[in-house]
Fold this protein.
Amino acid sequence: MSEGETNIGDILGGLMSTVAPMMTGLIKSILSPEMIKSVVGMIPDVLGAVVDAISSIDLGELISSTIGAILPLAMKLLDPLLDMLGPIIEKVLDMLSPVIEIVGPLLAAVGPIFDALKKIVGPIIEALTKGLGALGSSS
């Protein structure tokens, strides 16, 4: 290799010697006790936001409205097939009708169960987030 040409190793070596101190400083600041303490301090807030988001969801209503929206759409999409297989599918739907009559009230009954579960689990999670907050602030 002639004197005017630059070796790729020289370029990478120069780049590494320039970047290495910056990366070392960045890693040290990320792993500093203050940074770790601030990240740990955010955990109770994040858990609290998750609990609030989960507790605001009414699962019974969500499932009921989803099924109520999907069934009519599915029936419209299946019309050509229903025309071809009408008699057979009519018998199957007649057999499924009692099941659908049971599932509707069952979904309505499941909603209050999830509400009760939310009332039981919610305070437990809230206590855990407060405990984590106390641990984060005491360090």
In short: Helices lie at 8-30, 33-55, 59-77, 79-138. The two ends are 59 Å apart (CA to CA).
